[in-house]
Specification:
Number of helices: 9
CATH class: Alpha Beta
Oligomer: single chain
Order of helices and strands: EHHEEHEHHHEEEEEHHHEEEE
Number of strands: 13
Helix content: 25-40%
CATH topology: Glutamine Phosphoribosylpyrophosphate, subunit 1, domain 1
Strand content: 15-25%
Shape: globular
Largest sheet: 9 strands, mixed
CATH architecture: 4-Layer Sandwich
Number of domains: 1
């Protein structure tokens, strides 16, 4: 890749998405949602914007789309509430910001970036994150904005069955994320999620944890994960891949394959991730039956897919 080349990759969740339940109408809607997010981020990169701006823009588009479990499409927890997590990281200087258990912000990723740029902290939680979003005059919504009949029925079904589900009906791991490399060679990553349907009140997954579900370092790679958060946390997935590149000299593909297809599988960790390295190579590995995913490169390379 030319040093001035740029690219973006996104995901809208991984999991067991049964092809037989995927109607043409639903498939087209998911593809349109992915394309809108990719185009938003890629358009900024084209204009010379930073990778940080690009990943935030892409994730905000996914948060605004009710098809994905983040922002407007966030699932219900056991208490019938929305607790959303998000993180963003800039590979140029390894600055990062995150929120967890936030319930009032239209775009949690936007609040995460504000934490990174306007505070001395990395992670704000719960009521503190909610108050911060209000104090920063970021877009706030009432609970009705986040209400989704499909998500509500998923929750009711999970409550009735006494289960915690990654994304109940289709077993889709609902997290969204993006990674990018800009014209200046800087990497960035962002991740956002509504978590698990019927999750315990106060549960936090891997998405807002730096080095676990989100990571960016210009020396190695940028990564955004989606999957069974508890297993990703126990495996420190994102940083593990970066370490395999930095300390063992593995390629991005080899590092991703080792972690996603071997190490995670051995402990029952289902899911995937999107990754980009300092050379602009992109990997979209997943060990589930599907993952909403796509990428776009300045050299014309482009792809969107759900199944293997």
């Amino acid at each position: 890749m030319n040093p001035n080349d740029f690219a973006i990759a996104i995901h809208g969740g991984a999991g067991t998405i049964a092809p037989e339940t995927m109607t043409t109408q639903k498939y087209d809607a998911y593809m349109a949602g992915l394309k809108e997010a990719i185009d938003a981020g890629f358009g900024l990169l084209q204009q010379g914007a930073s990778s940080l701006d690009a990943v935030e823009a892409a994730v905000r588009m996914l948060e605004d789309c009710p098809l994905f479990n983040a922002g407007k499409g966030a699932v219900f927890n056991h208490a019938g509430q929305h607790e959303m997590d998000a993180a963003i990281m800039y590979g140029k200087d390894k600055t990062a910001g995150a929120v967890c258990g936030i319930g009032n912000a239209r775009n949690p990723v936007q609040v995460a970036r504000a934490v990174m740029e306007r505070t001395e902290h990395v992670l704000l939680s719960g009521a503190g994150a909610n108050a911060f979003a209000i104090a920063q005059n970021l877009p706030i919504e009432n609970p009705a904005y986040f209400f989704n009949q499909y998500r509500y029925e998923q929750w009711q079904e999970a409550v009735f069955e006494g289960k915690v589900q990654l994304d109940h009906s289709e077993k889709k791991m609902g997290t969204v994320g993006a990674v990018a490399k800009d014209k200046f060679g800087n990497l960035a990553a962002a991740t956002s999620t509504g978590g698990m349907t019927n999750k315990q009140f106060g549960r936090v997954g891997d998405s807002p944890l730096i080095g676990v579900g989100t990571w960016a370092d210009d020396n190695t790679c940028a990564i955004s994960c989606t999957g069974h958060g508890e297993l990703f946390m126990r495996s420190v997935v994102a940083y593990d891949i970066a370490c395999l590149i930095e300390y063992k000299g593995l390629s991005l593909q080899a590092a991703c394959d080792l972690v996603v297809m071997d190490k995670l599988v051995k402990i029952g960790g289902e899911g995937g991730l999107v990754a980009i390295d300092k050379l602009g190579n992109i990997e979209l590995p997943f060990n589930s039956s599907g993952m909403y995913r796509g990428y776009k490169k300045s050299d014309g390379g482009e792809k969107m897919a759900i199944y293997k």
